[in-house]
Design a protein that fits this description.
heterodimer; A: about 120 residues; alpha+beta; 4 strands; B: about 300 residues; eight-stranded antiparallel beta sheet; three-stranded antiparallel beta sheet
Chain lengths: ~120, ~300
């Protein structure tokens, strides 16, 4: 029993010594960061970072701006609709740029004709 | 002007259809009627069986909606964003509070003073186009009146113009005008007035396409606690906007764009002309006292004989 304990203790000490040597001796100080390549006994050993660590690979978030045509198809329609004069972002999208009403294709012109219809309150 | 005409009652107002080919009038009217019936079934606040009513009564749960209502809500949210929230679809409860909870013809002439119910804000509307669902917080009700009629005019005009090639269409839904297809060479002659049913227009202009809409505080007006009430609400208060302008007419690329800008101008008040000018939207504004201001490319007015 005592012999077995001694073997386990020696083995543990040996492992600790080996890892300490690897970290402090074999890896140059400036390489002691995640993902560094450490040279040891002629082999290249990649020290892999943990995916769980907060320093994840950064994904630059892009604002989701659906293409007007895809937005229209998402909304769906059974009848022909006029082309939207403004993009149609999904909702809610507080970061989407405001789409101002667009001017008419041609400005209203003066006329002497009698009106065909009247625009007014209803 | 050579055009065939048809008019009838629709969406609680008057529909007037003009087409450049008289032979296409019947088919064009059928197309408009079909479109309006579909939109009414989806978007009416006054029908117990509409999709919008079902959504407004959902008590905060997500509701699956059809493509028409999804698009109508998307259009309303777009208008809200474009106007910084001055045209807000979450005014349903405030509309009910001022008495506009039924077709206009059935509104009581007078009643108790309304409470101020500020709009919850369009940001609370969750529209998921992928799942075709809409979710409103409990108690929030949508009113699409500021955009849906004009949007319906755009859609119905386009659908009518598609019945035959090269057909020019002018459609008025209660004074919200949408044009589609090639119009007359000299443009569609269109009058503007406080009331679309007025016998005499205050001014007339010619339009080649797009839309023209007029928002007015003098039409769809009634009384509460003895005081005049109109249907254009300021989302900040939930009460009728102060009457700086009694009528604002705007021409834009689409009828819904025009109506969005005209309604926002009523709510904006004093600085509306500068705002419209900055957007490049031709517009005609009539103050509460009757003075006329025109902005952007709105032409000098020609008085009719």
């Amino acid at each position: 029993m005592r012999r077995a304990k001694r073997v386990v203790t020696m083995g543990t000490l040996g492992l600790v010594a080996a890892f300490t040597a690897m970290a402090d001796g074999a890896t140059p100080p400036f390489n002691k960061h995640r993902g560094a390549v450490a040279a040891r006994a002629g082999h290249a050993v990649v020290i892999r970072p943990s995916d769980a660590w907060p320093h994840r690979k950064r994904h630059h978030r892009r604002k989701h701006r659906p293409h007007p045509s895809s937005a229209a198809s998402a909304a769906g329609s059974s009848a022909p609709a006029p082309a939207p004069s403004t993009p149609a972002p999904s909702s809610p999208a507080p970061s989407a740029p405001p789409a101002a009403p667009a001017p008419p294709p041609a400005a209203p012109a003066p006329t002497q004709q009698a009106p065909a219809v009247t625009s007014g309150g209803s | 002007l050579t055009a065939a005409r048809s008019s009838w009652r629709a969406l609680g107002t008057t529909a007037e259809l003009l087409v450049t080919d008289p032979g296409a009038l019947v088919a064009a009217r059928r197309a408009v009627e079909a479109e309006l019936a579909e939109i009414d079934r989806a978007c009416s606040r006054f029908r117990d069986d509409s999709e919008l009513t079902r959504l407004n009564l959902a008590g905060g749960k997500p509701v699956e909606v059809g493509p028409l209502l999804a698009e109508a809500i998307d259009v309303a949210l777009r208008a809200a964003r474009a106007t910084g929230g001055l045209v807000d679809p979450t005014l349903g409860a405030a509309m009910d509070e001022i008495g506009y909870d039924r077709d206009f013809d059935e509104i009581a002439a007078d009643g108790p003073a309304p409470r101020a119910l500020a709009a919850p804000g369009f940001g609370c509307v969750r529209l998921d186009p992928r799942r075709s669902t809409v979710q409103l917080p409990p108690g929030v009700r949508l009113d699409l009146g500021a955009t849906a009629k004009a949007w319906a005019a755009d859609r119905a005009a386009a659908r009518a113009a598609a019945v035959t090639p090269e057909l020019g269409v002018l459609l008025s839904l209660g004074g919200d005008l949408a044009m589609a297809g090639p119009g007359p060479d000299a443009g569609w002659p269109v009058g503007v007035a406080d009331d679309h049913a007025a016998e005499r227009a205050s001014a007339t202009v010619a339009l080649a396409g797009g839309g023209l809409a007029t928002s007015s505080t003098t039409v769809r007006a009634w009384r509460r606690d003895g005081r005049p009430v109109h249907h254009i609400l300021d989302p900040a208060t939930g009460l009728p906007a102060p009457v700086v302008w009694r009528t604002v007419s705007v021409a834009a690329a689409t009828c819904v764009d025009a109506n969005t800008a005209a309604t926002a101008a009523i709510v904006r008040g004093e600085d509306a002309p500068e705002w419209l000018e900055g957007l490049g939207l031709p517009a005609r504004l009539v103050s509460a006292g009757g003075e006329v201001a025109t902005v952007a490319a709105w032409p000098a007015e020609v008085a009719l004989a």
